[in-house]
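Entry type: protein chain
Record version: 2
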Amino acid sequence: MELDCGLDFEDYFPSMISSLGAEGFIGELCNGFSLLMDANKGLITFESLKMNCSLLGLEVKDDELLCMLMEGDLDGDGALNQMEFCILMFRLSPCLMDDGVSPNKFLSQSVDPMLM
């Protein structure tokens, strides 16, 4: 018996944008950010990401968590603000990137400036 250990990835972002609209979609990304962030710092930190992965039952190695943060950390502070998180989510969506959708189109007015 041969096992297929390949991962199938389905990008739900385009269908979410279709059903929620741009503003609703960004709202959902912002809700995701809020769930993962350190409430005291208003940022997704290594510690908050590690804790939330654990709460979600995900076993993620420390170096993988650090890579996730580094991938989206545009200002070099070692954490993700809301804008960095949303941009990272866009970049990780193959369908949105293939369609040439610009994160700036959605993010310019929808992200809470207090969390940037």
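Comment: The two ends are 51 Å apart (CA to CA).
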